[in-house]
């Protein structure tokens, strides 16, 4: 049996826009201290819906989890920048 190379991994998807509303920071400053706000709730719901649909096989939902992870990463970086500038 000849040795074969494994298939290369699929390319990482790129995402141009996320679902974070433009006025999110204003809403975040005005929220009650006990109220939780998630700017990536659309991506979160999509990933959970995909899991439900695919019998919790996470490998079939990689696209949605990567999208959620990238949204969360961008949001946290934006928050860090605002804190450094003293705007939040």
Automatic annotation (TrEMBL):
One of its GO terms (biological process) is mitochondrial respiratory chain complex assembly. Signal peptide: none annotated. The keyword Mitochondrion applies. PROSITE patterns: CHCH (PS51808). The keyword Disulfide bond applies. Its main location: mitochondrion. Required for the assembly of cytochrome c oxidase. This is CHCH domain-containing protein. It comes from Phycomyces blakesleeanus (strain ATCC 8743b / DSM 1359 / FGSC 10004 / NBRC 33097 / NRRL 1555).
